[in-house]
Write a structure and sequence with these properties.
With 481 residues, the chain is mainly α. The protein is 88% helix and 0% strand.
């Protein structure tokens, strides 16, 4: 478990830094743009996120092939790099041109105002750099250069916040839209500089060039499944947001984003940090006992990191909204009650579902993800007319809970996966802690009770050996500095 802790620590440190910068960015945008401006940005970001599922989905295939070729065949590694870059460049140009050509229709559909088509065009110009930056990140991750990947994220985030402040202060929403494209450029440049440093240090004799169709086949074997699942999820959220905008108004889209955006900021600290280690590590492993052990280790780490975050965010949800946004966004506090419950289920489900890709069970992975999208969309569209905006996080939590049950049953039947006794106890205690805070009213009693609840949870759940292991790992890192 030491390797898992090490990789997770590096990734978590970068995630904490980038998320801290992101929280500052959210506060600035909320103060200067208000719910309507946040709603417009959310709609555009939802569309661009849908397009970015192409490079982001191929990441798993690129990482897997990079790690494999680096160990076995450097000639194939050079062909992989050049082929992936050319492919991403062509795809980026295609989706950019398509977005510009249909910018009027997209503005009408996304923003309910065709005259805002320039927002679509300006934001689309950053797609080229977003695609290429995703490829560079995948190469770095595949080379298992986790510290440099962490540094890349930190540098890009800091430069991005330095840029966004004057843009939004002087040009408000126009500046925020322009920042989307400029930040993509900054991210690509930083990733390229770090990648060149890795090449000079480890791949001095590597020959990069040529286009190899077989490489595309290898990448697509794993990547296309992820592209489909990410695209389906992005399309699902886009449809839900458009439905909210049409039925409740863009201001309510902004309120929903306040709750959803909090999940999007803190959850990647855990899910992304562990997956950086888990995906390349499980690639090629056939022994079910080893995979089961890694799944139990991942689940335990998820729960140890995720439970305190969710408990604190739930107990202080109104304070969090006021700190990160403005009083106009306070209705999002009630949404967090259900949104964070769904995040808890998502962390558990990720430990059961993420290993399916490196295990080669692509059909099962695709079926699970698409089923979740369909269930979440159906529940959202059903509940919004009945209970309003609250219907979306209720649908999210319900669908995530169903996913956990199905994924666990599948892994148990197909590979004999069993939760360890320690994990069963941790899961029960963590679930009880989250449930207590969900049901408790926000107030002074909740604020005072949070430290006591977390202390009780830690005493019951966490082993002394795990505390010592984390302490020794952190001490060694600081000592090396």
């Amino acid at each position: 478990m030491k390797a898992l802790f090490t990789a997770t620590l590096w990734s978590a440190l970068s995630s904490v830094c980038t998320i801290a910068v992101g929280l500052v960015r959210i506060k600035i945008l909320a103060m200067l743009l208000g719910p309507y401006g946040i709603g417009v940005l959310t709609q555009l970001n939802s569309y661009f996120r849908l397009l970015n599922t192409i490079p982001n989905g191929l990441t798993i295939g690129i990482v897997k092939c990079t790690a494999q070729y680096n160990a076995e065949d450097h000639r194939a590694l050079g062909r992989l790099f050049s082929t992936v870059r050319m492919t991403l460049l062509v795809l980026a140009v295609f989706v950019t041109v398509l977005s510009i050509v249909f910018s009027h229709k997209l503005a009408e559909y996304l923003l309910q105002d065709e005259s805002l088509y320039l927002y679509v065009i300006i934001g689309s110009l950053g797609l080229l750099f977003t695609f290429l930056a995703s490829g560079q990140r995948s190469f770095i991750q595949g080379m298992k250069e986790i510290p440099r990947l962490a540094k890349m994220k930190i540098i890009a985030s800091v430069l991005g916040i330095i840029l966004v402040i004057p843009l939004v202060y002087f040009w408000k929403l126009n500046g925020a839209i322009l920042h989307l494209s400029l930040f993509a450029l900054i991210t690509y440049v930083v990733a390229l500089v770090i990648w060149k440093g890795i090449r000079r240090r480890r791949l001095t004799e590597l020959q990069i060039g040529g286009f190899d169709r077989s490489v595309i086949g290898q990448v697509a074997k794993y990547g296309l499944v992820t592209v489909v699942t990410l695209a389906a999820m992005s399309m699902t959220y886009l449809i839900v947001r458009i439905y909210i905008g049409n039925r409740l108004g863009l201001e309510q889209v902004g309120v929903f984003h306040a709750a959803f955006g909090i999940s999007a900021r803190y959850l990647p600290i855990i899910l992304g940090s562990v997956s950086i280690y888990l995906l390349p590590h499980l690639s090629g492993i056939k022994d079910h006992a080893i995979i089961s052990r890694e799944m139990n280790d991942s689940l335990r780490l998820f729960l140890i990191l995720l439970t305190p975050m969710i408990v604190v965010l739930l107990g202080l949800r109104e304070v969090v909204i006021l700190v990160l946004f403005t009083p106009e966004f306070l209705p999002a506090a009630e949404l967090l009650r259900y949104q964070l419950a769904g995040d808890f289920f998502k962390g558990i489900g990720y430990a059961f579902g993420a290993p399916l890709i490196p295990m080669g069970r692509l059909k099962a992975f695709l079926a699970f993800d698409l089923s979740w999208d369909i269930l979440f969309l159906a529940l959202s569209l059903t509940l919004i007319p009945v209970i309003g905006l609250k219907g979306v996080p209720v649908a999210y939590a319900t669908a995530r809970g169903v996913f956990v049950a199905i994924a666990y049953i599948y892994q148990r039947k197909t590979m004999g996966f069993r939760l360890t006794r320690a994990n069963v106890r941790l899961l029960i205690v963590s679930s009880c802690a989250v449930l207590v805070v969900i049901l408790a009213p926000v107030g002074l009693v909740t604020y005072v009770g949070l430290p006591l609840l977390l202390a009780l949870w830690a005493v019951i759940s966490i082993k002394r050996s795990e505390v010592r292991q984390v302490y020794l790992l952190l001490a060694s890192r600081f000592k090396n500095r």
